[in-house]
């Protein structure tokens, strides 16, 4: 079924542990993402549901699979942990898709590894359902992310705060190398390994840098730009990752490790959902700064390599300067995206006050982030002064500056509406809907799960029959907190 072509196992033995998935007792299939499997060039024709379940529960190892758990470290909420690693994830192997792109196929929740510490190596069903919906929704929003290939129940219960059904999630990533993977070797002063890992990562994710005389420096900048543009994209759809530790920061620039993440309903700069983020380290508005904090951890790991490069006068003293330049890059990305959401073709620094005026109006009036942008689209070209927004001084100020800005740019009404529609989703995976899918799944009913996946695969298209899923939650439906559930 998979044409495995495994490259990570060619790295030295301390990069991973060879480990087989433990067999689930009575797994059942929840979902197999056939569209994505086809894109990946996976040949699943003629496979029965039973065979799919065996494969995606880890019961049956396919030829060519060399299962491993990857080693990594990480800064968790700012505290360094030298040994984390895949404690409940097992990489089955890598495949190369028809477009030449290499992918990891990984089972999450298929048993213990040498990195499990006190954990059981299992996943509860709730987080499996959640990651499936959110990662596929993220992809449909055109935001780089790991993907969902399959989900199964394990047929076993796992003990969390309470005893809950278990599940296994098959994740596909362009790799699972994290900033924490670099930290694992750097903190052991093993810079030969850091170099091997960097060469491997460059080869896999940034092959254009291979010939550069300053390839490690260029690698740092390239990773940084991908990460920062990812965070700007998250913010443009109101996404809060919630646990952006360095071990949850991918080198490829994909969204990874959907834990207590959430899309916000009403807008708030300081919004936090995660029950474990007590100080708001990973709050909505802090995500750019935290990405930079994580990147500064990466550059520390790479500094010995970077400073040994010819034609590079880089030292650890330049880091602050580099990070300042990267912050500017982040702000440019953010302006560009937020501008487009407001119909501005190419926003610059001078548009920042207008964008902030709008956001602080949303915050003050406790308005829904996604739906308010949709409501704005209807106001483009509408010369009627009446509209559904509460006419506060702030709104009037915003509204007249915004109209003026659109007039000045000289694009026609149709063009502006089109730009806004392309950059403002109608449907997002709202927490209360995701919760509903999880609650049903725990009772063995996957209707809402499938319905959400279907609607969210076309987030920019208004779908009349799913009008209800556009709505912000009623007061009693609001989800205030999300949990890792690991
Ligand atoms: P995460 O919350 O996914 O970022 O996980 C942080 C670390 O804890 C990683 O090293 C995980 O592999 C490990 N971990 C999380 N949940 C479990 C579990 N149920 N069993 C073993 N290890 C776990
Ligand atoms: Mg993680």
Structure description:
The structure is a single chain. With 486 residues, the protein is of the alpha+beta class. It has a domain at 8-176. Helices cover 40% and strands 13% of the residues. It is built from 14 helices and twelve strands. Strands 2, 6, 7, 8, 9 and 10 form a six-stranded antiparallel sheet that branches. A hairpin with a 3-residue loop joins strand 9 and strand 10 (163-173). Helix 5 crosses helix 7 (287-308), helix 6 packs antiparallel against helix 7 and helix 6 packs parallel to helix 8. The longest helix has 23 residues, at 319-341. The radius of gyration is 23 Å and the shape is globular. The two termini are 30 Å apart.
Q: What is the alpha-carbon Rg in Å?
A: 23 Å
What characterizes the major β-sheet? 6 strands, antiparallel
Specify the helix fraction band: 25-40%
What is bound: which ligands?
adenosine monophosphate, magnesium ion
| Overall geometry | globular
Tally of helical runs: 14
Q: Indicate the multimeric state.
A: single chain
Query: Which regions have little confidence, pLDDT < 50, spanning 5+ residues?
Result: none
Total strand segments: 12
Label the structural class. alpha+beta
From N to C, what is the helix and strand string?
EEHHEEEEEEHEEHHHEEHHHHHHHH
Task: Provide the β-strand percentage band.
Answer: 5-15%
Span of the ends, CA to CA: 30 Å
Average pLDDT: 96
């Amino acid at each position: 079924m998979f044409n495995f072509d495994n490259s990570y196992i060619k790295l030295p033995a301390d990069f991973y542990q060879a480990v087989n998935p433990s067999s689930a007792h009575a797994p059942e299939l929840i979902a197999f993402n056939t569209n994505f499997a086809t894109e990946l060039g996976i040949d699943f024709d003629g496979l029965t549901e039973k065979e799919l379940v065996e494969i995606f529960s880890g019961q049956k190892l396919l030829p060519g699979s060399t299962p491993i758990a990857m080693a990594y470290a990480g800064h968790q909420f700012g505290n360094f942990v030298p040994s984390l690693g895949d404690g409940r994830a097992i990489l089955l192997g890598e495949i190369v898709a028809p477009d030449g792109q290499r992918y990891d196929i990984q089972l999450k929740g298929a048993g213990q590894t040498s990195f499990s510490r006190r954990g059981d190596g299992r996943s509860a069903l709730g987080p499996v359902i959640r990651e499936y919906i959110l990662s596929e929704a993220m992809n449909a929003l055109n935001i780089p992310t790991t993907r969902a290939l399959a989900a199964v129940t394990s047929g076993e219960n796992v003990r969390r705060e309470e005893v809950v059904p278990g599940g296994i999630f098959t994740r596909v990533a362009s790799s699972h190398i994290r900033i924490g993977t670099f930290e694992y070797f750097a903190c052991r002063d093993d810079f030969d390994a850091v170099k091997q890992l960097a060469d491997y990562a460059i080869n896999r994710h940034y092959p254009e840098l291979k010939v550069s005389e300053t390839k490690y420096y260029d690698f740092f900048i390239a990773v940084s730009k991908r990460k920062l543009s990812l965070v700007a994209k998250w913010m443009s759809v109101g996404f809060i990752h919630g646990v952006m530790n360095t071990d949850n920061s991918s080198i490829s620039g994909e969204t990874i490790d959907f834990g207590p993440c959430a899309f916000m309903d009403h807008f708030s700069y300081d919004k936090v959902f995660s029950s474990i983020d007590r100080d708001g380290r990973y709050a909505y508005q802090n995500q750019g700064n935290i990405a930079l904090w994580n990147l500064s951890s990466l550059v520390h790991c790479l500094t010995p390599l970077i400073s040994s490069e010819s034609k590079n006068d880089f030292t650890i003293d330049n880091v602050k300067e580099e990070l300042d330049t990267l912050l500017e890059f982040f702000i440019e990305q953010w302006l560009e995206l937020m501008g487009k959401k407001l119909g501005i073709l190419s926003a610059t620094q001078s548009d920042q006050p207008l964008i902030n005026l709008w956001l602080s109006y949303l915050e003050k009036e406790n308005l829904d982030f996604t739906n308010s942008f949709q409501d704005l689209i209807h106001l483009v070209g509408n010369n009627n002064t009446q509209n559904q927004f509460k006419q506060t001084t702030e709104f009037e100020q915003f509204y007249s500056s915004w109209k003026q800005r659109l007039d000045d740019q000289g694009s026609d009404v149709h063009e502006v509406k089109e730009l806004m529609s392309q950059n403002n989703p109608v449907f997002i995976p709202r927490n209360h809907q995701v919760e509903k899918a999880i609650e049903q799944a725990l009772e063995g009913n996957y209707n809402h799960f499938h319905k959400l996946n279907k609607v969210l695969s076309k987030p920019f298209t208004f779908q009349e029959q799913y009008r209800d899923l556009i709505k912000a939650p009623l007061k009693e439906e609001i989800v205030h907190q999300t949990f890792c559930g690991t």
